Amino acid sequence: MDDCEHFWVNISSKRQRAWQCSHCGELRLDDPTQKREWVGLTDEEYEAMAEKHVTNCYFDTLTYARAVETKLKEKNHG
Ligand SMILES: [Zn+2]
Fold it and tell me: What whole-number distance in Å separates Cα of residue 32 and Cα of residue 65?
């Protein structure tokens, strides 16, 4: 039985992200083949957000970009 609560120490190298438990020595590797789900925005969402940032004939590129970034972060980190 492994009842170690694991205290992960980052032992990553340039080629491999890895952690080792300083208590029991267990290794945990970040498997690059493991799919990392990245949630993007749909075309509709991009368009809806873009519309919010158009005032008269002026498009506020920077706030639009930041809004998109914020939205992406929300989607990908809960
Ligand atoms: Zn451990």
Answer: 29
